[in-house]
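Handoff note, outgoing to incoming analyst
You'll be picking up this chain. Sequence as last confirmed:
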Amino acid sequence: DHINPRLVSVWLQGSGALRVESMSQASLLPSISSFLSEYLTPSHPLSHPISVTTTTWGSEATTLGSYSYISPTTPPTAPAALASPVGRILFAGEATHSTHFSTVHGAIESGRREANRILDMPANNLER
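Most recent structure output, in case you need it:
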């Protein structure tokens, strides 16, 4: 039944995302329910979640809430340039994927790409 949803993903940005990161689970659930009711109507099944999970991307020191994106001025060769090895140093990550940048599956596929590159290296290159 298409009117029986089970999962909703809510993406917030800026100060709203940082505020959500700092909220306790007990206060976040009613806040998200209120937010969803405002946009979906109170009678919509997704307006009353039973649990909520958050990330800390905005306050995480290694990401600070970011992931790659292609702007209108980004050269089409940018992901390939980022994926190019520098000597024996290899680069993976969603920003290095030619078609699935900004996605988890792009990050996974790029990791597999680089793992295969290592497996294809002559053994003497790996021992140095």
